[in-house]
Structure prediction request, 390 residues.
Amino acid sequence: MGTSRQTESAKQKAAHKKALLRKQRRALQVRRQKLILISTGLLLIFLFSVFISSCIARKNNNKEVQSSSAQSNNTSGLKEAEMDPVSLTVSVVGDCTLGTDDSFDYDTSLNAYFENYGSAYFLQNVKSIFSQDDLTIANLEGTFTDSEAREDKLFAFKAPASFAKILTDGSVETVNLANNHSYDYGEEGFHDTIAALDAEGIIHFGYDETAIVNVKNIKIGLVGIYELKDHLERAQQLKDNIAKVKKDGADLIIVIFHWGNEKEEVPDENQIKLGHLAIDEGADLVCGHHPHVLQGIENYKGKNIVYSLGNFCFGGNSFPSDMDTMIFQQTFTITKNGVEKDNTTKMIPCSISSDSDYNNYQPTPSTGEEAERIIQKIQERSSLIPIAKN
Prediction:
């Protein structure tokens, strides 16, 4: 009986122990669950605080970017408002025929002079003028080509590609190609000429090719129109090309025309209408050539139209009847408001030759009485322009 009681007591102890263990396990499990809940809560609070901080930082960054952008815009506007005036001097000259016709006497031709004196000879007397300006524009009337496919016409001019160096040696940066001799040797001759100019770094324009020249961070738009065959039918091309250089960002627009009638001292009606149209469409200067003589200058709406600059470095005739020419210079002032109306111009009277008896293809500034005579001639012919008085 004593043994039975002892056994029952041992069982009770074991049961009590198991119950205690279960209680401890439940307490431990509850504690673990509380810890998990607390940890999860802390994690959520941490993540939430990180999220809030990120949002605040992003918002502040956005404010800083906006502030920086606004400051940049204000600075840009300030720079624009404080933009210093830019002064640009442009020189324009007439027909430069840097070659010869096969029918001419070769010994007295421009090509022979090139062989004897080199490329720097031709413009050496005017180079100091061209090198001191900001841009020089010439009318290149002829071709640089070895092609034999001569067009069936009275005169056709050509020279080897190396003759393009005459322009670079003389500080001429740009040439108009829209004239009646640029295709003297067909498409091949025209493209050979462009290749020769490109090789020398000479900018070219004319027909449907326009050019933008960046000088002192001012964009100069160049347009060249060949009027001789189509006359007023070139009006649309003129409008389109001026619109094109405007779209390309031109701050200053110069239009060059090959127009008019040979030997005529007064511009015809087509010249006047197209010259006025160019100004109406936005040109700041209009210059022309082809008559082989000087014509007058008209001031239309505060802008200059130089109707004919005559010949300049001219290989087309060894003994021309008129060797008077000029360099037309205009100095433009560009501000944040555009081109100023200061109209600062200079006519530099020249002869196409340094010899008074014949054409030695070396344009030279005139002096003294000769200079006064040429200036007076230009003024007289300017007074004959029909619309000049209006």
User: Anything to note?
Assistant: Residues 86-383 form a domain with the Purple Acid Phosphatase; chain A, domain 2 fold (CATH 3.60.21.10). The first helix runs from residue 2 to 81. Residues 1-5, 55-81 have pLDDT under 50 and may be disordered.
